[in-house]
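re: ur question from yesterday

yeah so i grabbed the chain u mentioned. its 452 aa long if i counted rite. heres the sequnce exactly as i have it in my notes:
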Amino acid sequence: MANLITTVRNIWKIDELRQRLLFTLVALIAVRVGSFITIPGVNVEMLTAASSMGGDSGTIFGLYDMFVGGAFSNAAVFALGIMPYISASIILQIAGVVLPELQKLQREGEDGRRKINQYTRVLTVFLAALQAWGVSIKIAQTTVGAGGASVVPDAGLFWTLSVILIMTAGTVGLMWIGEQITDRGIGNGISLIIMIGIIARFPTAVSQEFTLINAGSRNLVVDVVLLVLLAGIIAAVILVTQGARRIPVQYAKRQVGRKVYGGSMQYIPLRVNTAGVMPIIFAQSILFVPATIASFFPESQFWQGFANVFSERSVWYALTYGTMILFFTYFYTAIAFNPKEVADNMKRNGGFIPGISPGANTANYIENILTRITLPGAIFLAIVAILPTFAMNVLQVPPVFASFFGGTSLLIIVGVALDTLQQIESYLLMRHYDGFMKTGKISGRAGAMSGQ
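ran it thru and got these structure tokens back, copy pasting raw so excuse formatting
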């Protein structure tokens, strides 16, 4: 504890680090403020009444609302959040596997990355406009009360176009704020915006727990046990997030003029969870499709029954969810990490794995190790993803609080927090201060990927 207090004091002693932290804090506050500014033409009181009914729970809209910290249910300026940018990035990343033009840009270094970023921004605007149009239809169809009064009194063409313009501008604004945080603040701005949206739901979760305790539905001792269990789950997630298999790489000595380069031993860190949180997002998005369709057809017995089979409290949901996560973990790992490319780069730079010949044998060796360590990582991801369902069904934890026991929320919070702490620690070590840990270093997602 004393070490932590000393570290916090040292952070404020470094002018640049203090300014970056303050800039990040102000930027994130601006993001949260924009999440409560409702778009024009919407009856706020009726919208609040409709949101309190929780009709989007268990649907893609509910998942979306989780990422944007309630801005979607508030029909706010930032209702789309940063998700169109994330979608555009994923689309271009997958397209880079099959399109030679994008593969060439990925190999061109900084210039190639700059062009890909420009393509990502353009695609983000297109996706944001398309999603804003869909959101405008959803909001216009939202009704309250027995009479079915719409939350939008005048949902005409002008209102629809204004919603598309405002929400698209909101996403572009968030994208700009995220880039500013990355350049002038601490941590990855885009990731921090998503994390702050998820954390914003935590006070509501705590409030629900206190309501249950006051009503006598929950024992205080049980809540203490739940908090201990939550701490253990977080510790396990941190352990797996930082876990990596280090492959030694020897670089041959070469003389350039009077200087000798190489001859040192370095390591390629192969992460146990290379895919990160993406397999859970993919699987969850697919499994939420039946409930999403059912929300548009409330009178259809077929769709309502089909949605119940794959509801979050169903055994079939847990089994299908876990199986899909195993598949998507291997699928996204194959996209995110290319052993052949790593082997070719090593060969060009005069590097080799001791005992393994360069080229194809090195690529096969790395791929075999990656395949083996991905399996326990995939199984762990599946377990973590199902934990919220276990917490709701067995421990009778409310859905909002249960989401912090695992799944997308916990993985994003842990991953982004580790990355941010790693950057802060780097500033401290450069100024010859102790970091957060006396021994060892914090290794976030960015640190684990640095060798790839």
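noticed a couple things. The beta strands are 143-144, 149-150, 244-251, 254-256, 259-261, 265-271, 351-352. also Residues 20 and 64 are 29 Å apart (CA to CA).
anyway ttyl
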